[in-house]
Design brief:
The chain has about 300 residues and is of the alpha/beta class. Helix content is about 40%, strand content about 15%.
């Protein structure tokens, strides 16, 4: 079996930056309670590793970031890589919390594009419902309209001077389809495609794969960019498995496979992906699937 590690894969610059900020915050405030407002990045093993630095994750998918702040009374709050609205920042300040903003610079760039436009027009934002990045962007103003599919576009009211933009981690194929559909209703709309470069090149690397029998995508099921890698692969690769760790591997995955590719989402720790690659290589040589324990202290290395 030929094993093909896809390049690029794994952490993007925004994730690297967020994790670095979290570790530095723990060093800077050793005597204060530290909370991350939601998952710092969408990988539960990163969140677990943050606990080693006494950083607690405040997460409840039924609550907005604004509502989650009610669970923090004092100390330090880290805003995650996904970005937050000014309302969240203002509330944290009013509560007397020390603010550390780990928002991805690409997300902040999208926020600024939206803020510049909504002073004199409306915004259509393509994103995933209930995703923190989409929540942060759509909370910037009342004239931002979140859409996830064509029906959402059909249901939009009449808008003026429209900007169409999007969440940074969407599918490059899906986004173009929805933009084209929206332009049928708003033909004079300005389009600013904000899929970040890290997402784009990781997806393009999947599209460039040829004659692959099976693809393993490593990442957390909460990670939108990871799921989009799987979705894009479905167009051309017969078998696709999305797994989190080496413990999700099983021998049946490799039955009848001649060419196996492995990639990972932008929030997936390199340690987890490399452990999977090495385990598959060992299995390829020995036909013994020797799973290994996950060492949480290596996740943030």
């Amino acid at each position: 079996m030929e094993i093909i590690p896809v390049v690029p894969r794994g952490y993007c610059k925004g994730v690297y930056r967020a994790i670095k900020i979290a570790k530095e915050t723990a060093e800077q405030y050793p005597d204060k309670p530290i909370y991350m407002l939601g998952m710092i990045v969408h990988n539960k093993y990163v969140v677990e590793a943050c606990k080693l630095y006494n950083i607690k994750c405040i997460e409840d998918k039924s609550l907005t970031r604004l509502e989650l702040l009610d669970k923090i009374d004092n100390g330090v709050v880290i805003f995650t890589a996904h970005g937050v609205s000014q309302k969240v920042i203002d509330k944290a300040i009013a509560k007397g919390l020390i603010i550390v903003n780990a928002s991805c610079e690409d997300v902040l760039k999208t926020h600024q594009i939206i803020l510049d436009h909504i002073k004199h027009g409306d915004c259509i934002y393509i994103g995933k419902k209930n995703h923190p990045e989409a929540e942060g962007a759509c909370s910037l103003a009342d004239n931002i309209y979140m859409i996830s599919n064509k029906k959402d576009i059909d249901d939009l009211p009449q808008l003026h001077n429209v900007l169409i933009t999007n969440q940074t981690t969407m599918s490059i194929l899906e986004i173009q389809d929805l933009i084209n559909y929206a332009l049928q209703k708003f033909p004079s709309a300005k389009v600013v495609d904000e899929i970040c470069n890290a997402t784009r090149i990781r997806q393009q690397a999947i599209l460039n794969l040829k004659d692959i029998d099976c693809l393993i995508v490593v990442g957390d099921p909460n990670s939108n960019n990871t799921k989009k890698l799987k979705d894009i692969a479905a167009n051309s690769i017969p078998k696709i498995y999305m797994i989190e760790t080496v413990n999700d591997l099983n021998e049946e995955m490799f039955n009848g496979i001649n060419r196996l590719a492995i990639t990972s989402g932008a929030s997936t720790p390199t340690y987890l992906t490399e452990q999977i690659i090495q385990t598959i290589k060992e299995y390829n040589n020995t036909h013994i699937l020797n799973k290994k324990p996950i060492e949480i202290d290596k996740i943030l290395d």
